[in-house]
TrEMBL record:
Biological source species: Rugamonas fusca
Domain of life of the native organism: Bacteria
Protein name: Acyl-CoA thioesterase
One GO BP: fatty acid catabolic process
Lineage, opening ranks: Bacteria, Pseudomonadati, Pseudomonadota, Betaproteobacteria, Burkholderiales
One of the record's GO cellular component terms: cytosol
Length: 145
C-alpha cells in the first residue's frame, strides 16, 4: 500500500492556492485504492464531479446535471491518506449550461509540507427543471437581489 509515509520526494511545493477556498476537501481511504495501492482514477473523477457541481448549482440556483467531461488530466498520482483540496471556478455560462474548471491539490508528507497539483478537469453542467429538462440559467442580478 502506498501511503504518505513512503512516497517518493515531493516533486513540487508551492502550497495551496493563496486566498482561495476549496469547494471540497477529502482524504482517500484504503478502500479507494486500485490494485497497485494508488487511488483509483474513478474515485477522483467522482469527487471532481461533485466539487464542480457545487458552484454550478449555486449559479443555476437549483439542480444541475453533468452533460460533459470536456477534459481531465491526472498530473500526479494520489495516495491513500493525501489530504485533497478541490478548487472549482465557473469559466463559462451559456443559455442553459455552466462550465467549471476544477483543480485538485494533494497535501502529502504533511509533516514535511509537500503540496502537489494532482488533477485538472473541465466539466459542463446543465441547469435542469423538475422534469430533468434543460432550463435557462437565471440572470446573475436575480441571484444577487
Ligand atoms: C443534461 C440534459 C438534460 C440536457 O438535455 P439535452 O437535450 O441533451 O441538452 P441540449 O442539447 O438542449 O443542450 C443543453 C446545453 O448543453 C450544452 N451541451 C450539449 N452537449 C454538450 C457537450 N457534449 N459538451 C458540452 N456542452 C454540451 C449545449 O450547448 C447547451 O448549452 P447552452 O444552452 O448553454 O447553449 C440531458 O442530456 C441529460 O439528461 N443527460 C444525462 C445527465 C446525467 O445523467 N448526468 C450524469 C449524472 S448528473
Amino acid at each position: 500500500m502506498t501511503t504518505p509515509e513512503n512516497t517518493t520526494p515531493c516533486p513540487e511545493h508551492r502550497g495551496l492556492p493563496a486566498g482561495r477556498m476549496p469547494e471540497l476537501r477529502m482524504m482517500p481511504a484504503p478502500s479507494d485504492a486500485n490494485v497497485y495501492g494508488d487511488v483509483f482514477g474513478g474515485w477522483i473523477m467522482s469527487q471532481v464531479d461533485i466539487a464542480g457541481s457545487l458552484p454550478a448549482t449555486r449559479r443555476a440556483n437549483g439542480r444541475v446535471a453533468t452533460i460533459s467531461v470536456n477534459s481531465f488530466v491526472f498530473k500526479n498520482p494520489v495516495f491513500v491518506g493525501d489530504l485533497l483540496s478541490f478548487y472549482a471556478d465557473i469559466v463559462k455560462v451559456g443559455n442553459t449550461s455552466i462550465t467549471v474548471n476544477v483543480e485538485v491539490y494533494a497535501e502529502r508528507n504533511r509533516l514535511q509540507a509537500c503540496t502537489v497539483k494532482v488533477t485538472e478537469a473541465t466539466l459542463t453542467y446543465v441547469a435542469t427543471d423538475s422534469d430533468r429538462k434543460p432550463r435557462k440559467v437565471p440572470p446573475l442580478e436575480t441571484l444577487l437581489a
